[in-house]
């Protein structure tokens, strides 16, 4: 169903709502009991029609807005110039979908994804260690040696460095 089709249903819903309002107003201002009953019946009919249209529209919108999306194959997660994180995917019909997250939200989503991936692996018999890339051996720790640096030369009154004695 296209957006135009959904808008036609919305138009029909608006017409039904207007007809309910007119029927109720007419029933309020009609002195004749038979005419009042007829207006109330008309109002109930359009009210039922409106509820049915509302259910139809809600279902169509749910179907249209909850389509599955596949993660982009090239650079699916990117930082934006505004400091947000953009997660890119493609929905049905190759429609681009972008989810923008703050840095805090991105960290939280990443933690949740990691935890759920571990649970998913566990449920299927996999192990987290089997899927993670190996960590290479770290370079041996060599403590830095202390090398004293010469003190800076005092400045002359004119802002230039004082002349240094020649090295022998």
What's the gyration radius in Å? 36 Å
Oligomeric state: single chain
Annotation field: number of helices: 4
Approximate shape = elongated
Number of domains: 2
Percent range for helical residues? 40-55%
Note poorly predicted spans.
none
Largest sheet: 4 strands, antiparallel
What is the string of SSEs from the N terminus onward?
HHEEEEHH
Number of strands: 4
The residue-averaged pLDDT reads: 82
Spatial separation of the terminal alpha carbons: 91 Å
List the helices and strands and how they pair.
Elements: H1 3-29, H2 33-65, E1 69-71, E2 77-79, E3 85-91, E4 95-101, H3 103-123, H4 128-131
Antiparallel strand pairs: 1-3, 2-3, 3-4
Helix pairs in contact: 1-2
What does this structure look like?
- Strands 1, 2, 3 and 4 form a 4-stranded antiparallel beta sheet that branches.
- 51% of the residues lie in helices and 12% in strands.
- A hairpin with a 3-residue loop joins strand 3 and strand 4.
- The protein is built from 4 helices and 4 strands.
- The N and C termini lie far apart (91 Å).
- The model has no long low-confidence stretch (mean pLDDT 82).
- The protein is α+β, with helices and mostly antiparallel strands.
- The chain has 2 domains: 63 residues; 62 residues, no CATH class.
């Amino acid at each position: 169903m296209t957006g135009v089709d959904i808008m036609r249903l919305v138009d029909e819903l608006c017409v039904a709502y207007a007809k309910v309002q007119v029927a109720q107003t007419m029933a309020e201002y009609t002195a004749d009991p038979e005419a009042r009953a007829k207006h109330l019946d008309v109002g109930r009919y359009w009210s039922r029609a409106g509820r049915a249209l509302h259910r139809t529209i809600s279902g169509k919108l749910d179907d249209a807005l909850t389509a599955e999306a596949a993660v982009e194959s090239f650079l699916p997660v990117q930082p934006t110039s505004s400091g947000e994180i953009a997660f890119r995917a493609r929905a049905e019909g190759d429609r681009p979908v972008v989810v923008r997250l703050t840095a805090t939200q991105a960290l939280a989503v990443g933690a949740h994804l990691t935890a759920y991936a571990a649970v998913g692996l566990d449920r299927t018999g996999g192990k987290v260690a089997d899927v993670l890339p190996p960590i290479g051996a770290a370079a041996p720790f060599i403590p830095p040696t202390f090398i004293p640096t010469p003190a800076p030369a005092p400045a002359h009154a004119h802002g230039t460095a004082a002349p240094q004695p020649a090295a022998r």
